[in-house]
Amino acid sequence: MTARGGEASSPRPSSGRAAEKVTAEARAAEARAAEERAVEQALALVGRGRQASDPHTTQARAPQAHTTQAHTPQAHTTTPHTTQSRTTPAPGETPAPGGTPAPAGTSAPAGAPEASSPPPAPPSPDAPGHHAPSTHHAPSTHHTPGASHTHHTPGTSPRAHSETPWREARALADRLGRAVPLAAHRLPLDRALGHVLAEAVVALTDLPSFDTSAMDGWVVAGPGPWTVRNGEGLLAGRGAGEPLLDGQTVRIATGARIPAEATAVIRSEHARLDEAKGRLHATRDVVPGQDIRPRGQECRSGDQLLPVGAVVTPPVLGLAAAAGYDALVGVPRPRVDVLVLGDELLTAGLPHDGLIRDALGPMLGPWLRSLGAEVSAPQRLGDDAEALRHALTTSDADLVLTTGGTASGPVDHVHPVLAAAGAELLVDGVSVRPGHPMLLARLPDGGPCVVGLPGNPLAAVSGLLTLAEPLLRGMAGRPAPDAYRPPVYEEVQGHPHDTRLIPVVHRADSVVPLHYNGPAMLRGIAAADGLAVVPPGGVRSGTEVEILDLPWTSAAPWTEGCFT
After folding, report:
1. How does residue 508 score in pLDDT terms, banded at 50, 70 and 90?
2. Which segments carry the region annotation Disordered (predicted)?
C-alpha cells in the first residue's frame, strides 16, 4: 500500500477480522507511526540528493551546534505532494521547500518538517523574493550573548539550514533583549504604570506616619464607663486635639489622629451612649490598643518597599504615593513598529474577490502593549519591497515586527530585504507548529531588532510568544515568569519532530485543549487563557504540560494595555 502523498510506506495491517479488534488507541498509534515513517522517508530522499551534490552539508535534523544562518527562505506549505529527489523543476512545476520541485498547485504535508537541501538555481532579477545563493560567508561583526551564528554578506545565503529548537529560540531572544543596556528616566506617577522600576522604592516616611483610628466610633482613655467630652469629634485630616484624661471619651472618625493618652477605640456598634448622664458604656470587652493603627505599622522610613525590576502596577502607584513619592524612576518601555505586509488585506468590510480582512493589525498593537511595549500605529505596506526596506532602515524603534512575507513565495520580501540591508539573521525558522517560518534579526549600526511573524494568524501568535515576548521582556528588564505544568485533560496529538503550541483553557486543576487550532484560525485562541507547550510526539491525558499564559488572563504584571 502507498502512503498519502505518493511516498512508499511499510505495509499496513490487513483490513480483515484482526483489524476490527484494533482499539482506537492502537489505530491512533498506527497513524502516528505511518506519518513518522513517511516523514523519515522524505527526509532520507532529500538527504541522499543533498549528499550526492555536496558532501559537506549536514543531514536534516542531525545533531549539530546551533549555527543560525541567513538562507533562502522556505515556504510554509500545507497540502500533500509527492517527494522527488531531483532539484530542478520541470516545466509546469514550482520549486518546493528545500529545492525539491512539486507539481504546480501542491505543497508539503501539513506539519511535516522541511529538510535542508542545496540552494535552487539563481532566480531571475525580477524575482525579488529570493536570495542569490553563495557559499562565501563574511565574518560576523556582531555577537549575540550566548548565541552562535553566522553573519553573511548581504545578498548571499548559506547552503544548508536547520530550524532552531523552540526553547533555544526563546532563550536566545531573551538574552538578546537583556544585552540591551537599560536606560532610566523619572516618571510622574500618572505616567509610570506598566514600567519597570530602575530604582528601588524606599519609604520616605513611616506608614502610617502617626497613630490613627481604624474605625468610626469612640476613642477612650482608661477603663469605662467613660464621660463624654463636650465639643466636636475628631475627624480625618485634622490635628490630634486635646489629650484625653483618664475616663474620658470623644467621637472619632476612621483615619483621624489618635489624641495623646488614648488607650483604645470602641466601634460605634459596640458602644451604648446614655445621653441623659453623658456616659458611654462598652457592650464588649475593651482591649488596650484595639482598632488603633500605630505609627510605622506598615513600614518605617528607609524600609525598601519594592526592588529594582518590579513592574509598576496600580497598587504600586498607590503604595508609592502613600510613601511620599511624586515620581518613580523606571525603564523606558520598548518601542515597537508594526509593519503589516500583503496586498490581499482589507481593513474594513467583508472579504471579497480573493481579498481577506487583516486580523493581525488590530490584534498586535494591544497584545504588544499588554507586554509592556509602546506601539506605533500599524503601517500597511502591501507587498512592496522598497516600502519595506525604507520602513526597516528608517525606524527608530527598538523592535520592528513584520507580518507575513517570511517564506519563499514570489512576493515574500522579508529575507531579501534584510539581506540587502546587512541584517544579522539570528533565528531563521523555529521547530514549532504553527509558526515555524518565523525569524529574528538585527539591523546593523545600532539599528532595531526585527521579528518576522508568519502571515497566518495563529502562526503569528506563536511567533509573538516565541520570539517577541521574551525579547521585549529582556529589553524592559522584566523578570521571566515562573513556569508551571498542570495536567492536560485529554490526549493531544503532537508533531513528529517539532514542538506544538495548542490553545487551552483552565478547568479546575487541569487544562483542556481547544479546537480550531489551525495556523490560520483565531477561534480557539480567542477562547483560550493559555497555550500548552506540547513536545514532539504528543502527550497522553493526565500528562503535565508547560503553559504559556496569555497576558490579559494570567497573574503576569498588569499594564495599561491589557484592555485597550
Report:
1. confident
2. 1-167
Which three cell numbers, joined as nine digits, stand for 562?
491589557
CA dihedral 487, 490, 496, 501 (to 10 degrees): -60
Are 179 and 148 a contacting pair, CB within 8 Å?
Answer: no
First to last CA, the chain: 56
User: With contact defined as beta carbons under 8 Å apart, do 148 and 66 qualify?
Assistant: yes
CB 295 within 8 A of CB 211: yes
Interior angle at CA 321, CA 319 and CA 327, nearest 5? 115
* 3-class secondary structure, 266: strand
Which residue's entry shows cell 496529538? 493
Alpha carbon 199 to its chain centroid, in Å, reads 25
Host H or E run for residue 280: strand 279-282
DSSP string, 24-45: HHHHHHHHHHHHHHHHHHHHHH
Q: Could you report the per-residue pLDDT of 393-433, keeping only the tens digit for each?
A: 999 999 999 999 999 889 999 999 999 999 999 999 999 99
Q: What is the C-alpha to C-alpha distance for residues 310 and 312, in angstroms, rounded to an integer?
A: 6
Spatial distance between the Cα atoms of 172 and 302, rounded to a whole number of angstroms: 39
The number of CA neighbours under 13 Å toward the Cβ of 455 is 24
Report d(CA 424, CA 401) in Å as an integer.
15
Three-state SS letters, 350-366: CCECCEEECCHHHHHHH
Asked if residue 399 lies in contact with residue 368, where contact means CB atoms within 8 angstroms, the answer is no
